[in-house]
């Protein structure tokens, strides 16, 4: 059959086009009756003109056949098929329930083209299998969502199902995926493209600090602010697997799906999580902004989107497990005086939880600590004008707990497993376990006026387990339905469960257990490749950081927290009058600006000096911005290098002002103008030359506000 029979479809967001084509099957099963094969993503890149001839585009993408190849190149389809001798990793590895492997060969049986959506159904009638892929373009955010499912007329064993597979760019030399650790989340890892596979397979059963499920593919020469970039994020909380493969013929493919071994039972249907795609010609920032907007405006189910993000106070690093009513009231009063608007009672309020060896699972208020329940504390907190938030770790159990004594069989995994933080995971795939947890947590939430839950998860799973992740989602969904006004924060020893899957049912993430502003500055910058300010919790920690021992000035601690969803997490009784005044002032600035910063794009700046970690938060309408330039280290050279801004209107003029110029230290003896007055410069000048900031000590932050004139 001729190429003319090829069918093509396109999806567009501003600046991005994805074209899919289904070609007549060559040689294999289906060729005889002229069937079309699985669609292939033949183009993913800059926006194409409206009238682009897609059939010719598909024809232009056909690669030649030469020595050492099969007689037709096996298609790099949205689910590359082993049954068609695909020379790389297949998109589906499936077997009969008894383990006998299947080699499906799909044909396209239906394609629905809706308003910005595409649904493809492919079948293998001989094997009684169907595969469905869905795509949806969201022009308002710049993201294309996609997911896949397979279905059979009998239970099958699934070893691997990739979300629809995308081609990797060939004019690109490297990729960026993400590693990390406790107190060191979102560490970008740059690897060169080369023959074979770069694989990430997360064995922890949760998203985890060490395996954030995202990938950036910078084109050759791309920076934060310029050049081409593709990016992907897999929104799943059970641990992902990623493959970035260069085939012997030079083609490149990207696959994302659940971690190996996730599906432990045979079943007639399996589905992937949603894979989000972004493309930009404006550097990594273009993709980052698409993800930030998409997460904030499309993914997170805000109970009340108009409600300003409240300043948090969290008592963890002030009192840990020592919950004393009088002390907590005193701390709450001081926190309110500093500007806090939500008081969060962290771990330690339930069972007999005096340390981390006991009581997880016993979700009853500890009457030794709160003889009259939460009433007196909540009344005090409300009296101060704050709302009340509460910590839970629902999926966990200590052996030293009533729950474990009654239900030892509810533990997930083998008895011989190694505990984590003296705790075990409850089997949330079991309906009775979810029901029990729902009843207990629902009762606590119903007994007092709570508007926020910090949902923790402080250990990895015994093994990857998609049923557990689905059970977690089901429990959280039940609680959200019963308490629609409550906001949930996803925490897992800090940033161990951050992904768009959990964020489609929660409202904030605890980015890291590190309240060390120096470490946070870096973590926040790299997390902004995916996360907007609205969901990214950031707290002012103690003067001497509890996780690093570093002593940092209150100005630096406060400004770093003010870059995201601000809060405090130190004992306010340690603050000197000067420190309290600084904190009040920065919190006041944050509140005065949050109406626009919460919707601002976070743009990572390309700093000429590696000691400076800088970002520009750009208002949605372009009328204003704020630049945070953090000095993470002492520079190699004497004078600060100019810092170039981005995404301004070259022809417009901007008034730029260093709002904390009073913080210039003694050794800054010269007179850069920003130390004494604002400057008025064109966007072209601010982007082309940049601003010269005054000299500063390491571990300090300059804050530069800009207003379009
Ligand atoms: C780990 C969290 O990340 C901390 O913020 C705190 O909530 C503790 N768990 C409590 O056990």
Provide a descriptive summary of the structure in words.
α4 (325-338) runs parallel beside α5 (375-383), α7 (431-447) runs parallel beside α8 (466-482) and α10 (554-561) packs parallel to α11 (577-597). α9 (517-527) links the parallel β26 and β27. The protein is an alpha+beta fold. The model has no long low-confidence stretch (mean pLDDT 97). Strands 4, 5, 6, 7, 8, 13, 14, 17 and 18 form a nine-stranded antiparallel beta sheet that branches. An eight-stranded parallel barrel has the order 19-20-21-24-25-26-27-28, surrounded by five helices. Strands 29-30-31-34-32-33 form a six-stranded antiparallel beta sheet. The protein is globular and about 85 Å long. It folds into three domains: 3-298, alpha-galactosidase from lactobacil brevis (Beta-galactosidase, Chain A, domain 5, Distorted Sandwich), CATH 2.70.98.60; 314-595, Alpha-Beta Barrel (TIM Barrel); 605-708, Golgi alpha-mannosidase II (Immunoglobulin-like), CATH 2.60.40.1180. The chain is built from twelve helices and 34 strands. The chain binds (2R,3S,4R,5S)-2-(hydroxymethyl)piperidine-3,4,5-triol. Residues 316, 346-347, 391, 456, 458, 491, 493-494, 510, 513 line the site of (2R,3S,4R,5S)-2-(hydroxymethyl)piperidine-3,4,5-triol.
């Amino acid at each position: 059959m001729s190429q003319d029979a090829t069918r093509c479809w396109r999806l567009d967001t501003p600046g991005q086009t994805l074209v899919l084509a289904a070609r007549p099957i060559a040689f294999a099963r289906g060729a005889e009756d002229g069937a079309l094969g699985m669609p292939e993503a033949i183009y993913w890149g800059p926006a194409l003109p409206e009238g682009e001839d897609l059939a010719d585009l598909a024809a232009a993408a056909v690669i030649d056949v030469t020595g050492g190849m099969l007689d037709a190149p096996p298609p790099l389809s949205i689910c590359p098929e082993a049954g068609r001798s695909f020379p790389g990793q297949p998109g589906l590895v499936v077997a009969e329930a008894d383990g006998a492997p299947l080699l499906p060969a799909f044909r396209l049986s239906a394609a629905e083209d809706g308003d910005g959506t595409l649904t493809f159904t492919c079948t293998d009638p001989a094997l009684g299998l169907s595969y469905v892929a869905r795509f949806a373009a969201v022009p308002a955010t710049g993201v294309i969502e996609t997911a896949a499912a397979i279905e059979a007329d009998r239970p099958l064993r699934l070893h691997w199902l990739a979300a629809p597979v995308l081609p990797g760019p060939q004019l690109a030399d490297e990729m960026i995926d993400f590693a990390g650790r406790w107190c060191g989340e979102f560490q970008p890892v740059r690897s060169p493209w080369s023959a074979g596979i770069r694989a990430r397979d997360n064995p922890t059963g949760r998203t985890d600090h060490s395996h954030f499920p995202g990938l950036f593919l910078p084109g050759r020469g791309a920076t934060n602010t310029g050049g081409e970039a593709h990016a992907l994020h897999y929104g799943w909380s059970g641990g992902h697997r990623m493959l970035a493969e260069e085939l012997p013929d030079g083609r490149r493919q990207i696959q994302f799906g659940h971690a190996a071994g996730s599906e432990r039972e045979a079943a007639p249907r399996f589905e992937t999580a949603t894979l989000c795609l972004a493309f930009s010609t404006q550097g990594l920032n273009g993709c980052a902004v698409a993800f930030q907007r998409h997460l904030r405006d499309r993914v997170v189910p805000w109970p009340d989107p108009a409600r300003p993000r409240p300043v948090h106070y969290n008592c963890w690093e002030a009192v840990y497990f020592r919950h004393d009513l009088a002390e907590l009231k005193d701390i709450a009063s001081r926190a309110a005086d500093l500007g806090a608007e939500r008081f969060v009672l962290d771990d330690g309020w339930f069972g007999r939880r005096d340390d981390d060896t006991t009581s997880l699972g016993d979700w009853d208020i500890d009457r030794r600590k709160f003889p009259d329940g939460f009433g007196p504390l909540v009344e005090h907190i409300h009296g101060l004008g704050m709302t009340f938030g509460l910590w839970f770790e629902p999926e966990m159990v200590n052996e030293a707990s009533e729950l474990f004594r009654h239900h030892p069989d509810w533990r997930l995994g083998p008895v011989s497993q190694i505990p984590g933080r003296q705790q075990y995971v409850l089997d949330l795939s079991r309906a009775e376990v979810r029901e029990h947890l729902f009843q207990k947590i629902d009762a606590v939430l119903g007994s007092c006026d709570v508007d926020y839950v910090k949902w923790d998860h402080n250990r990895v799973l015994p093994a990857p387990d998609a049923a557990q992740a689905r059970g977690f989602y089901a429990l959280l969904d039940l609680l959200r339905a019963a308490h629609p006004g409550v906001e949930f924060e996803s925490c897992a020893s800090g940033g161990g469960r951050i992904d768009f899957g959990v964020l489609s049912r929660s409202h904030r993430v605890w980015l890291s257990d590190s309240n060390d502003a120096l470490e946070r500055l870096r973590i926040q910058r790299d997390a902004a490749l995916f996360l907007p300010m609205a969901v990214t919790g950031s707290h002012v920690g103690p003067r001497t950081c509890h996780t690093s021992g570093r002593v940092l000035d209150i100005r630096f601690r406060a400004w770093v927290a003010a870059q995201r969803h601000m809060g405090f997490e130190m004992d306010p009784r340690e603050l000197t009058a000067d420190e309290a005044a600084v904190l009040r002032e920065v919190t006041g600035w944050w509140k005065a600006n949050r109406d626009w910063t919460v919707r601002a794009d976070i743009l990572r700046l390309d700093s000429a000096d590696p000691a400076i970690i800088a970002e520009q938060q750009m208002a949605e309408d372009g009328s204003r911005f704020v630049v945070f330039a953090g000095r993470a280290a002492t520079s190699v050279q004497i004078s600060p290098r100019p810092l170039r801004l981005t995404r301004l209107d070259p022809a417009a003029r901007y008034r730029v002002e260093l709002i904390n110029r009073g913080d210039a230290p003694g050794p800054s003896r010269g007179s850069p103008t920003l130390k004494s007055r604002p400057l008025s410069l064109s966007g072209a000048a601010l982007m082309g030359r940049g601003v010269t900031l005054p000299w500063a000590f390491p571990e300090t932050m300059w804050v530069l506000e800009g207003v379009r004139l």
